[in-house]
Write a structure and sequence with these properties.
Elements lengths: L1 H180 L8 H6 L9 H14 L1 H4 L8 H8 L5 H11 L7 H13 L16 H14 L3 H41 L1
Organism: Daphnia magna
Protein name: Dynein regulatory complex protein 1 C-terminal domain-containing protein
Pfam families: NYD-SP28_assoc
Length: 350
């Protein structure tokens, strides 16, 4: 038992010795570390102190230079202050002169303003006079333009009637070609018959009144708000914002054949088309009267679409055949004359 206690005590002593030696090593390493750190800090502080001393020397030099500069600036500022006082005196004199000049210019400006106001009154009177002349010229121009538009429309209508007559003659000739020459049933020449339309008769006053009554009946929700006008026609023109009599007549012509159920729809389409119409385009049922190019294209369409190309080719072939047939007949007539002449000669010889 004593041996065990002695062995354990020796083991504890050895462990304590090992711990003591380990702690001594750690303390030694710590001392070395802190010694090295302190050495580095001392060296860095020494270099910083040297830099600070150098900077202090520089600051001393700069301070001395700044003192010299400040002294120089003080002298310069004193000189400038003296110059400024002289300049202020000069400016005061100049301000006095400019004040007098300003007073003179103000008086001249007031006089010029009075003259300008008088001239403005004269110009306003002249402008009013010119505006009235312009309005009268616009009214005359509108009247002339309306007359020209109606004349253009009548000329186009005459041209359409003339084209329709020519197409009718062309259709009758084509029918004779099919029936008398080709001995075939005629197909009515669809392209020509599509362009041959009966001329629409103008509405009389009674028909126009009927259209006005129909429109007022269907547009009562608009005309009821206009009580200062008694005439149904004037109420409709004011409700639809149509100041021109010709445009209103065109509207009545368009609405004549429209049933009551479609009046609102057609009227909305018509108003939208008229609003999108250019200002220089006449108000008419002929939509192609927009400009010269559109009119030219419209009438050139007759030439391109009136007669089908197959029918033109057939006419050309028939013309060539007729020319050949005429040449053959002339040759036969010449041969017959020669035969007659030879017969006469042989008879005379006998």
């Amino acid at each position: 038992m004593l041996a065990d206690w002695s062995a354990s005590e020796n083991q504890i002593i050895r462990e304590l010795n090992e711990l003591g030696s380990q702690w001594m090593d750690d303390l030694y390493q710590t001392d070395v570390y802190y010694y090295n750190e302190c050495t580095q800090i001392r060296n860095s502080l020494t270099s910083d102190i040297q830099l600070i001393e150098q900077e202090l020397e520089k600051l001393k030099v700069d301070f001395a230079l700044n003192n010299e500069v400040l002294d120089y600036n003080c002298r310069v500022l004193k000189l400038r202050e003296e110059e400024r006082a002289g300049v202020i005196v000069q400016h005061k004199r100049k301000i006095n002169r400019l004040t007098d000049r300003y007073r003179q210019l103000k008086e001249e400006s007031n006089k010029a303003g009075q003259i300008r106001r008088e001239e403005e009154l004269k110009l306003i009177k002249e402008i009013e006079h010119l505006r009235k002349d312009c309005e009268s010229m616009e009214c005359k121009f509108s009247t002339i333009k309306g007359a020209n538009d109606r004349q253009l429309e009548s000329v186009c209508e005459m041209a359409e009637d003339r084209i329709s007559e020519l197409l009718k003659k062309l259709a009758s000739i084509d029918e004779r070609i099919f029936v008398e020459i080709l001995e075939q049933p005629w197909d009515n020449l669809v392209g020509v018959s599509r362009h041959i339309q009966p001329k629409a008769s103008a509405l009389d006053s009674k028909q126009l009144e009927q259209v006005v009554v129909r429109l007022e009946k269907n547009l009562r929700f608009l005309t009821d708000t206009i009580s200062e006008v008694d005439s149904p026609k004037e109420r409709l023109m004011k409700a639809l914002d149509i100041p021109d009599e010709h445009e209103f007549h065109v509207l009545l012509t368009d609405m004549h054949s429209v049933p009551d159920s479609d009046i609102l729809k057609e009227l909305a389409c018509y108003i939208q088309q008229q609003r999108s119409r250019p200002a220089d385009q006449p108000v008419t049922t002929r939509r192609y009267l927009a400009d010269a190019a559109t009119i030219r294209n419209h009438f050139e369409l007759f030439k391109e679409t009136a007669v089908p190309k197959k029918r033109l080719d057939m006419w050309k072939m028939l013309a060539r055949a007729l020319v050949q047939y005429e040449r053959i007949l002339r040759d036969r007539l010449t041969l017959a004359a020669d035969v007659l002449a030879l017969t006469t000669q042989s008879t005379a010889l006998d």
